[in-house]
Amino acid sequence: MKLIAPLMRDDQRIELIRRALQEHSLDALICTLPLNVLLLSGYWPVVGTSVAIASHDGRIILLVPEDESDLADHSCATEIITFLPSSLGKMTTAAEAIGGPLNAVGSKLSRMIGRIGFESGEAMEPASYAGVHLYGGTIQSLLRNAFPSSTLVPAADLLGQSRAVKTHSEVARIRVACDLAQRAFRAGMLQLRNGLTEVEAAAMFRKPLSTGLGAFPGVERADGFVSCMSGTNSALACGAYARSRAKRIEASDLVLVHCNSYADGYWTDITRTYCLGTLSDRQRTMYAAVFAARSAAMRAIRPGVKAAEIDRLAREALGVRGFAKEFTHAAGHGVGFSAINSNAQPRLHPKSDDTIEAGMVFNLEPAIYIDDYGGMRHCDMVAATDNGAELLTPFQCTVDELVVDGS
Fold first, then answer.
1. Burial status of residue 379 (CB atoms within 10 A of its CB: 0-12, 13-18, 19 or more)
2. Which residues contact 170 (CB under 8 A, 6 or more apart)?
3. The total number of structural domains that make up the chain
4. Final residue belonging to a domain, choices 142, 164, 186
5. Which domain holds residue 200?
6. Which of 84, 141, 224, 325 is the most buried (most CB within 10 A)?
7. How would you classify residue 312: left for phi > 0, otherwise alpha for psi between -120 and 50, otherwise beta?
């Protein structure tokens, strides 16, 4: 095992964790899901075998595989312990590889830790690599071995609430992911034209997400996912997932481009809908309704407002313009530690009981989907502040900016 000195520390996050532990009568949190390791330590694991331990005294310990140590070096951990996940001398599982280092930590801390919060229940995990290891129920066995005298307490609610409110440092890193997406949207729009297939257009929008890495000093990993759905296919974008097809984009099509970019584990959820060629009266009416819904919702965003009220205002603005039935999903959800998770707080949903707090980051996505015609969605990233809403995606926000010649 090798100890590596950390380079930075998010004191605001560490204090929020300490308070959460105190409120839930816990002595420590131990997490393995990459988004929760990121939450506790500021490090986004690559292959999912890392473990983060946050104790009530503000200590953050990271256990990471040796080949990720240079990335973990940029975390806010107070102690980083590396381990060898495999060797030619012996075939091991991830649980076997982490067992020894975790037991060593347990021997050192077990007297101070009586109640340990751990991950439980359903989870959404963003893709950090082609294959991401998940310990699942194995982690409970590992924790019982490492901390035999401690009590394990499910902490899904605590973790969900903690991820909902971002620190100043975390919002700044989400801004970077938004700036990365902005470059991609601007570059992709310039190349959008008739005759491209949806998959070709999506590839053009996605390329700058990774090739633009050099423009953001300090960011180690950047990329994302982009889908393009055009014409009648764009009406299908209301579904649970977006999918580019081999369909060719045609003049007068609505072209819905959806992007989830990331920078070092902090994610976005952004959509822009372009029109190729001259706007029809019907399309102009749709744009006007979507932007009216966006404006009504944005004006209402501030601490203390119910998330359901924001959804209601967006839905009402679409309804009075004749598109009530065509807005078929919630107005938004929490974003940042993950990209697409409808249960991430705050949930801008008609039945949500969430309340907006300063520091919450979420998407706002008013939309219209008309079967056999087309769909239109304008999805922004928004941060709630003490003074109202901060728009994190201030680009291509007018109808004129979304009309493309396309010839």
1. buried
2. 10, 13, 266, 336, 361
3. 2
4. 164
5. 168-404
6. 224
7. alpha
